[in-house]
Design brief:
Length: 267
């Protein structure tokens, strides 16, 4: 990982929200990079400062105004992208701004929730309060995921998939984005990350049918092998025909054909 990749992960690293693989990669980078260590220190100071402040209940109009500001900032980013010619690149500065906005949303929502609890004098938050906060934070995570999936950086798109791994029950829109990434992303590592993420939801008929359909699209051997093993383990009989087509395809390499023939016998 380079500095740009690491700095996009530092907030989640500080909150201990990264996957073990991503956390290990960031830790290795921090051992030798003074600049990224400084960035991490600044993030810790910011978060500690926020945590140490007394929370007040914001007026009801603040959330509406803040949402308008957020949408305005996102629209500005989209306009900047449309004005560029050639390859569209989401730069570190643009991403950093978006992250700050998203972080501010989470902080605002947490402050609203805690402030309301303190005002009412309740020591225990109600279920509806907790559920509302979780839904709002989930919405921010989804926004970040969709934004990252549009980036040119493969590491950004992998990070987007990593966000889905933190969602206990992603909705159809998120699942569809993962399926689209599996079928169309230009980077094999991003497609593979999407596949492993989708595997967690393979009991969902929408996911299992999409994985079977994807098998006919994939030409990368590692993706083919993982998909075949996955579908065979699930005893997915709909995969029999796509696996046969892989065996009959002259372009399929021997290693894939061997796995396909072996797994076909188990279905």
């Amino acid at each position: 990982m380079n500095c740009e990749d690491v700095q996009t992960l530092l907030p989640d690293y500080y909150d201990d929200m990264l996957s073990p693989i991503s956390r290990y990669a960031v830790q290795n980078h921090l051992k030798t990079c003074e600049h990224c260590n400084k960035e991490l220190h600044e993030i810790s100071v910011l978060f500690d400062s926020i945590a140490g402040r007394d929370l007040e209940v914001p007026p009801a109009s603040l959330k509406e105004n803040f949402s308008r500001m957020l949408m305005g900032e996102m629209q500005q980013e989209e306009n900047k992208k449309r004005q560029k010619t050639g390859t569209t690149i989401i730069g570190m500065q643009s991403f950093s701004m978006l992250w700050k906005i998203a972080a501010a949303v989470v902080i605002f929502l947490g402050g609203t929730f805690l402030g309301t609890r303190l005002k009412t004098g309740s020591d225990t938050p109600s279920y509806s309060q907790i559920n509302e906060l979780k839904n709002e934070v989930k919405g921010v995570k989804e926004m970040m995921m969709f934004k990252l999936l549009q980036g040119e950086s493969a590491s950004d798109r992998i990070q987007a998939v990593d966000y889905v791994n933190e969602m206990p029950s992603p909705d159809r829109k998120v699942i569809a984005a993962l399926i689209n990434t599996l079928n169309h992303d230009k980077n094999v590592n991003v497609r593979l990350a999407s596949l492993y993420s989708l595997a967690k939801f393979s009991d969902n008929p929408m996911v299992s049918d999409s994985l079977v359909s994807s098998l006919s699209r994939q030409t990368e051997p590692v993706i083919q092998i993982v998909l075949i093993n996955m579908l065979a383990a699930k005893k997915e009989t709909k995969a029999i025909q796509p696996i046969r087509e892989i065996l009959l395809n002259d372009k399929t390499i021997k290693e894939v054909k061997d796995i396909a023939a072996q797994k076909l016998k188990t279905l």
